[in-house]
Structure formats: C-alpha cells, structure tokens
Amino acid sequence: MKIAVAGASGALGSAIVRELGDSGHTVFRLVRGESRGLDEIGWDPSYGRIPAGALSGLDAVVNLYSTGLAGKRWNAAQKQKIRDSRVIAADTLAAAVRDCGVPLLLNGSETAYYGDTQDRQVGEGDPVGTGFHAELCRDWEAAAEAAGPDTRLLLLRFGTVLGRNSGVVKAQAPAFRAFLGGRLGRGDQYLPWITMADAAAAVRFLMTADGVAGPVNVTAPDPRPQREFAAALGRALGRPALWTLPRPVLRAALGEYADGFYTGQRAVPEVLTAAGFEFRHAELGAALQAVLKAGS
C-alpha cells in the first residue's frame, strides 16, 4: 500500500512510519512547507492548505497532526490554538482524501473523548463526555467526516502511549529515579494505556481490517488506576512509589492543563479485540518492563 502519514515526526508517528515501512508498505511523510524528498508531501496545516491532487494514488492517509497540549498555560487563546491545530488539519486532509479518492483515512483522536468516566468501563459505543478535552476530541473526529461516504474512516482513540522516550514514562521516570515518584491525588483515576509497539502494530493491522470502521479504542485491554500505574512504574525502575502529588499543587504550576492528570477513562479496546488483534503487551507490569528494557 501507498500511505501518507501526517505528524510523522512525533514519537508515535515515527513508530508508525517504521512499522509500516518494515511491513513492506511505501510511506510518505506529510511535512509543513515544501517537500524536500521523494518520500515527502508538502502542506500547510495551520492555514488548511494542501496542493490539489497531492494525495492522488494513495491507498491510505494516517492523520496524527496536532499541537501538543502541554507547554503554555491554558487560556482562551491557547485552547483555541490547540483546537484549531486538530480541527483545521483534520478537515483539510479529509477534504483532500475525498477529492483524491483515497479509500482509507485513519484520523487520530484520544480516549479523552469519553470525559472522566471514573470506574465506569467504556467502549467505542459510549457517548462523548463533557469538558474541554472531550469536546476537543468530538470536534476533531467530526472534522474527519469530510472524507465522505466513499472513504473508510477510522477514528483512532489512543490511550496513553508508553514509550521509554515519550509521554508519561519519559515525564515521570526521572522523579522515580530520584525517589520522588508516586501517585497523583488519590490515584483512582483510570489510565488507559498501550505500548508504542502495540499502538503502531494496531494501526498497521487496521489498514487491512476491511470490516472495521468508525471509532477504535487503541488501548491495551487492562486499563489500571493511576496509583497502580505508579506502583508498576516504580517496580520497573527499582524504586518505591512513595509520594502523593495533590491536584492543587500541580494546578498552581500548570493551570487547567493539570486537570487531565486527575481524570481518566476506563476505556477498553472492544473493536480491536473483536477484529482479532493480538497484543504483544497486555499486562501493565510486563509492558513497562519491556518498554524500559527495549527503549522503545
């Protein structure tokens, strides 16, 4: 297959590009500005521009493009920037997919779509939640509908992707190594997770899962409360999970962005499991051990 990937420079995007390339697919990277090689396609996601016909001849497009949630404190302008980066890019690519007759679009999203579910288990058929992050995912997914009825659309609701040099492991491991790791608040908020290797493999699997369309939870089948994640990460690093970080302390430092660390989704991969996807890492403790050992 000939596949274009937007957001290919990020940790997850890079892993997906490798997975697809190693599986024999021809992969093109969608890059901001002018293309600089035969394996690149230039576009301007900020202004919603892509050359006419740029996606012609492709079999699939994977859209992971977004502005990161972290960095600056959230205010109205920053939240609008975060929303626009996802919605404008998704709408632009979906329209180009439709106009170029690309038969498959895989559009990134997140399990935050469900809002804070506490200990209630949710699958792909559950409704959208409330709050900025849930509404952001709703709008992100809605923009991808511009691909039209002739395109098989997959809405990839990623959980927390575990990689040694990305995401929550990279952020929290230094604190644990310094004996400062622990839970966030009560730690009863659920963490839907998946290893980087399984996330990339799931995307490849879905390329040829012709009967699958619509939302897909890209998560391992065993979401755990954050306190259990902290304990498992501590064990993998040979450190205790001694401390508790109260919500007001982190909110004072990060503003509204901090709230996401104290909410969660007990999201399970009903669609992936029913389609026959086999997880390499289905248990949290073993997954963290594998991630830290492999450096993936």
How would you characterize the overall build of this protein?
Helix 1 (11-22) links the parallel strand 1 (2-6) and strand 2. The chain has a 7-stranded parallel beta sheet with strand order 3-2-1-4-5-7-12, with helices on both faces. Strands 6-15 form a two-stranded parallel ribbon. The protein has a two-stranded parallel sheet with strand order 8-11. It has helices at 11-22, 76-100, 132-144, 167-177, 196-207, 226-237, 247-254, 270-275, 284-294, and strands at residues 2-6, 26-32, 40-43, 60-63, 104-110, 121-122, 152-158, 160-162, 182-184, 190-191, 193-195, 214-218, 224-225, 243-245, 266-267. It has a single domain (2-294), classed as 3-Layer(aba) Sandwich (Rossmann fold). It is an alpha/beta fold and 296 residues long. The longest helix has 25 residues, at 76-100. It has 9 helices and 15 strands. 37% of the residues lie in helices and 20% in strands. The model has no long low-confidence stretch (mean pLDDT 94). Residues 3-210 form the NAD-dependent epimerase/dehydratase domain.
